[in-house]
Every structure is written in structure tokens, then in C-alpha cells.
Prior knowledge:
Structural class: alpha/beta
Number of strands: 10
Strand content: 15-25%
Strand order of the largest sheet: 1-2-3-4-5-6-7-10
Order of helices and strands: HEHEHEHHEHHEHEHHEEEHEH
Oligomer: single chain
Helix content: 40-55%
Shape: globular
CATH superfamily: Divalent-metal-dependent TIM barrel enzymes
Number of helices: 12
CATH architecture: Alpha-Beta Barrel
CATH class: Alpha Beta
Amino acid sequence: MIGASSSRTAQLGFMQGRLSPVVDGKIQAFPWEHWRDEFAAAAAIGLGVMEWTLDHDRLADNPLMKIDGRARIAALSEQHGLSVASLTGDIFMQAPFWKAEGGARQELLGEFDAVVRACAQAAIRLIVVPLVDNGRLEDTDQTSVLLEALLARRQSLSDQGVAIIFESDFGPDALAAFIASLPAPIFGINYDIGNSAARGHDPVAELDAYASRVLNVHVKDRLLGGTTVPLGTGAARLPAAIAAIQRSGYRGRYILQTARASDGDHQGVLLRYKNMVFDYLDACDES
């Protein structure tokens, strides 16, 4: 599978950090000590796409937020034939501006704008805003704050070539209604296979409701009502889910946001997951 076509390699990527040791017991965190190493590690197993991950802690120190850091990212990407085309903004889940008030909200909005500028300068075109866990929209006031701030920035986002895509815990109809209030293609949806399975959602019903707005897909498996588990061991019917996504007309990227290796062989387990998803995609092409 390492010899798969370049088009398939450009279609499947991984979440930054999945090729590094676990940080502070977290399934996902920016890999401060190993972020440079992940470019070569990804190339070695035939992955050509990385999704950057950005935390609120030490935001200003993240290489993405620095001129020299972005130059280093570009150099490593070119050296290893890897693109960084999307970013998961855990920063916005950890410190959501729509839950802050007054000066604190303005400070967080300033950080949001700075992240958008950095992504534009690094040619990262998709920013995932997680409306889950601490970022979950809890009432109409929070929703109004979020929508007002984003709509005020729609021209700036368009001018910079950056789209905001949402990961949420909404059901199909609620998410369709939410995204309908924001213009395409500046705003869209990040479809997470594992999260949908954990909530017992039917992927066909979800995609019938909003497939045209899906701009990125996260691949993971979760137990029904539970946590992330190795691919193929949870509630996500991955072959059927990927087939439904492909049938919907989606031709974007699939990002492995998968369970960590229990034995520390993160490269080996990601290679196995990559091959599984390649097989599912190949089966779609053959059907």
C-alpha cells in the first residue's frame, strides 16, 4: 500500500501528533518535542497530508504563529512531499470566544484573527472549529455571539482564502439548519465518522442533510456513547460510512484522527489504519 497512487496519497492524511509519543497522557496535543520529526515519519509510511493541531497553551510559541516557524514548516513540507492543508483549532474548544464576555472575548477574537492570518500565510485553507466538549454551544446567546463574529469576518476570510469548518455534536437537522445560516464556501462542516457513531447517528441521514457542505472528514472509531478505540473495534461501520461519504460526491481529504498505539508503535499503527482506509476507498472505486 505504500506504493499507492499519488492521488490517493494526497487524499489521506493524519492528525499532527499521531506520529509522536503521547503528550501528558492526552490523545491529542501539539507535539512540541517531535513536530519536525513527523514529516519524515509520515513520508516513510506513504502519508502525504498532515492536519496541524493548535492548542491555546503556548499559542505564541507554536511554529505556525511565527514567521520563521512557517518557513520551517514550508521547507519540511517540500523536503518530504507533504502538505499541511488544514488545522484543527483545539484552541477554540479550550478557550471559546463565544463563551467569554467583554475584554476577554475581544482578546480571544484577536487570537482567532491571528490564527486565520497565520493559516493564510502558511497556505492552510481549512480551519476546524470544534463545537464539542468545552466548545459546545449551550444556548442561543452563545450561538448568536459565534454567528455574529464569523459573519463579520466573512469578507476577510474570503480575501485570505481560508474556510471555517465546524465539528459539532448536533443531530443532522440541527447541523443542517446551523450551517445554512452561514454562506458557502467560506463556512462548512468537518464530518467526524467516530463522533457520529458514538452518538448513534446514521451517516446516510447525516449526509442527506448536509453533504454539500462537508469540506473535511476525520476518520476514527468510537464506542457507542463512549471513547475512541482502534479502527474496526467500535460503533463506526467504517466501510459503510466511507462508502456513503463517497456516494455523496465528497472528494476531499480523509484525516486519521485515530486511537493511539497501546505499545508506543505509533508509526506502525498509523500505517495499518492508513491501509485499512485505502482498502475502503479502493472498494468504493470498484463498486
